[in-house]
Amino acid sequence: MFLLNTTPDYRRPLDPRDAETLGVASAEEVERQLAFRDNHAETPLVALPGLAAEIGVAAIHVKDEGHRLGLGSFKALGGAYAVIRLVLEHAEKELGRTVDITELHSSEVRAVARAMTVACATDGNHGRSVAQGAQLVGARAAIFVHSGVSAERVAAIARFGADMIRVNGTYDDSVREAARVAEAKGWTIVSDTSWPGYERIPGLVMQGYTALVREALRKMPEPPTHVFIQSGVGGIAAAVAGHLAIKLGDRRPIFTVVDPARSACIVETARAGHPVTVAHGEPTVMAMLECYEPSLVAWRVLSRVADAFMTVDDEDAIAVMRRLANPVAADPAIVAGESGGVGLAGLVKAVADPAIKAALRIDADARIFVVNTEGATDPGKYQEIVGLAPAAVAAKNEAGAEA
């Protein structure tokens, strides 16, 4: 499925709240806070000239978030960042003064954090980030996971000391259960999706993601002409599209949101012109994107600054995982999890369809930006799909460098 944005809000200015959340000043503050993280390092921006030549575009750049903060996913930028912000804000109220990030590990702030419990629902990556953030500040974390989350992903979250709570049903069921329990117990929900009356914290999560956009723009020889970003509830797509729209203005790229065909809540929302919940059907291999209800904040952004919406099938996602692991020409290999390469899968599908290619104005001069949103967050599943262990794929680059 492919749709151009025909919603009434298309090309209207961002809501002032979203413009502030995703603006340059806020993004600069995200980067300032990241500098105080012990394991912070910019993730690689990888050029794929071989693939670009093969599909007939000028350049493809992949922001490889599989290396982010030791968590293997872009989500490391969101949940932990929001937890830290919330702890600092709570400390300001408790202490009656301004509290800076430099005081995060002070005895006063740690005492405030110890009295807090943060909670969220997750498919895996967001919960890992929230749990890591709680561990960093000394707060307690309660993470709700639905029945489709693998034991390996649950264990990866639990290692940060979080209390793991299983919920029957889908991701959206776990979101509702987390909100219910947190309200009853006085916990703070740190969700990456939003609903009526709950917008600010998901906005902070999205704000954290702006760091990857700033890093990428600094490294690219020229700004991209086209961007393809995958979407679950819409947070990463909205953060990238919103920040690019603010930063680049009239020079902003043509932005396409890519959904799994089996859980296309953003695409169906675009088709309806308002937020809709899609029916739960057969699970998708793109587990981190298996969401059936969009984030209201994310949609408010995307309805204004996304240019197109499309779906990809499970086979498309798998093909891109294998293509990145076994690159063409002299391109470097990239370890992309089941959801990681979905934006690139959208590009490959778009250029193969003359009508979509023309609608998006993709030509030989196009400069494409995509994000590998996750590495092999479930190594066993990755090896089953690709036929190689993640370490074996990464070793290809080391062997190439030695040669």
From TrEMBL:
<dbReference type="InterPro" id="IPR001926">
    <property type="entry name" value="TrpB-like_PALP"/>
</dbReference>
<dbReference type="InterPro" id="IPR036052">
    <property type="entry name" value="TrpB-like_PALP_sf"/>
</dbReference>
<dbReference type="GO" id="GO:0008838">
    <property type="term" value="F:diaminopropionate ammonia-lyase activity"/>
</dbReference>
<keyword id="KW-0456">Lyase</keyword>
<dbReference type="GO" id="GO:0030170">
    <property type="term" value="F:pyridoxal phosphate binding"/>
</dbReference>
<feature type="domain" description="Tryptophan synthase beta chain-like PALP">
    <location>
        <begin position="39"/>
        <end position="359"/>
    </location>
</feature>
<dbReference type="InterPro" id="IPR010081">
    <property type="entry name" value="DiNH2opropionate_NH3_lyase"/>
</dbReference>
<dbReference type="Pfam" id="PF00291">
    <property type="entry name" value="PALP"/>
</dbReference>
<keyword id="KW-0663">Pyridoxal phosphate</keyword>
<protein>
    <submittedName>
        <fullName>Diaminopropionate ammonia-lyase</fullName>
    </submittedName>
</protein>
